[in-house]
Amino acid sequence: MNDCTSILALKDRKEVANRLKDLFNAPTYDQAVERRDQLVKDWQTEFPKVVKKLENSFDELMVKKLLTDSKIYLMLQRTTKRLNGVTNWLKIGRPSSLRW
Length: 100
Description:
Layout: H1 2-5, H2 10-24, H3 29-43, H4 48-69, H5 71-92
Helix pairs in contact: 2-3, 3-4, 4-5
């Protein structure tokens, strides 16, 4: 989202940021798609670069939002930390006090 607003004039950033927040806070994916289509229609001539970025990265951004808003993200984060711990433990070697 910051990438979209950074290419705009300062006077336009607030309006675009608010509309994008509304888009990404949609309760369902279908509603987000409807809001995106409306933004594309409204901004096609006024903000063509924003429209292009939005069309190119919309699905990726929605997946990131879904992951960060859900329990899946927490589960992935915990699993990654556990795997990193196991990997580090294997690199160091097991302590001599542990017998298998």
